[in-house]
Design goal:
The complex is a heterodimer of chains A (467) and B (86).
Chain A (H helix, E strand, L loop, with lengths): L36 E5 L2 E5 L10 E4 L14 H15 L5 E7 L3 H12 L6 E6 L6 H7 L3 E5 L4 H7 L5 H17 L3 E7 L6 H16 L9 E5 L17 H11 L7 E4 L7 H11 L3 E4 L13 H12 L8 H12 L17 E2 L2 H9 L9 H5 L4 E2 L6 H13 L13 H12 L9 H11 L1 H7 L6
Parallel strand pairs in A: 3-4, 3-10, 4-5, 5-6, 6-7, 7-8, 8-9, 9-10, 11-12
Antiparallel strand pairs in A: 1-2
Helix pairs in contact in A: 1-2, 1-10, 5-6, 7-8, 11-13, 15-16
Chain B lengths: L3 H13 L20 H15 L5 H5 L4 H14 L7
Helix pairs in contact in B: 1-2, 1-4
The chains are: A alpha/beta (467), B mainly alpha (86).
Chain lengths: 467, 86
Amino acid sequence: MSDRRKRYPLVDRTEPNLLEDTFDYSLPPRIRFDGPIVEYIDGKPVEFNPADLAARDIVITDTTFRDGQQARPPYTLEQMVHIYDLMAKLGGPNGVIRQTEFFLYTANDRRTLDSCRALGHKYPECTGWIRADKGDFRLVREAGLRETGILTSCSDYHIFQKLKFKSRKDCMEAFCGVVDAAFEAGVRPRCHLEDVTRADIDGFILPFCERLMRMSEQVPEHLAAKIRLCDTMGFGVSFPGAMLPRSVPKLIYKINQELGVPSDRLEWHGHNDFHKVHANAATAWLYGCDALNATLFGFGERTGNPPLEGALIEYISLRGYLCGIETQVITELADYMRSIGMPIPDHYPLVGRCFNTTSAGIHAGGLRQDERIYNIFDTTALLGRPPRVAITDKSGADGIAHWVNEFFGLKGEHRISKIKMHKLARWVLDQYEQHKRLTSIGDEEMEVKVKEFLPEYWQKYGPRSAC
Amino acid sequence: MSTIQERVVAVTSRVLRLDSAEIRPEHAFSSDLGAESVQSIELIAMFEEEFGIEMEEDAAMSVQTVGGAADFIAKVCEEQGVKVEV
């Protein structure tokens, strides 16, 4: 029998190939495709070309003040205004963060909305969120908003078990009545198809969306209904070949390509119950939703929503440029959130205290030689967060040297040799070997010891903040 | 006056807490004498102190054996104008 395995001869080099077309250290790594994606829908192959993404105005919409606030005690007015202000700075002048939504039910809701709009930012545009109740349009009109989200729950769990409609037809009529009321009020409705990934797609979702399309043809373009696909329980999956109603690609294809709902009127809203929230949201972008709905740091109902900062990094990875996004504001927002009592886990990507901190001495050794080895991108430039090492018994001399040089802000030939740190390294090791310590050594404790064991360097370069 | 070799053995004995009679030139600091990460830099620091020299970190760290250390130190002493007994 002949060996039909493909052969891959070594491509020898004496200089490294760092794949910088993809891993340009100055940006988050590019996501590049080498051809169309094929998905089988109703038994037929359908091509999706990721290159089309470049021509679409993909955006991020925010729900920090709506879904995000359903998961925590209310923000104060001042906090919301500050967060909104920072969000505007973060998304930049091109409006990559295009919209954010507000509750409209209380006097405080309204004061907050007015205070945010008084800042005069073009983006994110403020929109509303109401129940599917015609009476609620009074609130939208009074607020003078151009667009509002409307809760149009669409699985039978909601239609029958929660909303107690006698039939799907009754439910659809009720929802369409509210949409009509929005048109009459001159407000663009954004129908939030709650629980869509557990709904009857052919039996309710597509007929409802088709009806919304027909209704929208009767009104000016700026009022045409938008559709938000709400993966309320996080059931969505991005895998090619997965079946409806859980398939994100198929769901979007059906609504976008079969019904003709334009991409700029389609939005994905996910939840993280199965750890799929960000991948599903980015998949929605790829397959035809222009808007990715997110919250800052993923705070949201139960397990949370797509993290807005993750979506921004994904956006840059897909686009290959910053598009006006001020990435350092991500860190500013995280610091602010912590300051108002919102916990962010230490290992949370991009903003956690340890997201680019290594505890292993061997990794610290790599960082010393070339920080790209163990850092995802230039986190110093993009997030104001240089890669760091945490000091434990695993840090080794390399880890300690990295900590000290970073503490003093020394780079390149100015870095202090680890040979000079032998007393400090011995002290660290003794904490664990002699004193049986079980916790890592904090920055403040290290500072005291640096002053004690490296007094000449302390005098020359310190004290500086290690954070 | 002791030779470089004898002084290297003495420092190694002190840092690694070994009997100097057991240390031979062909011994590798790590695999034969059991020097761990931190002890390796302690050894280099103590060699610098013993001979009054400064060693380049990566070059010094690449030295594997006791005899290799004596040769390396002799070279550094010569470069830095430090008189030693060979």
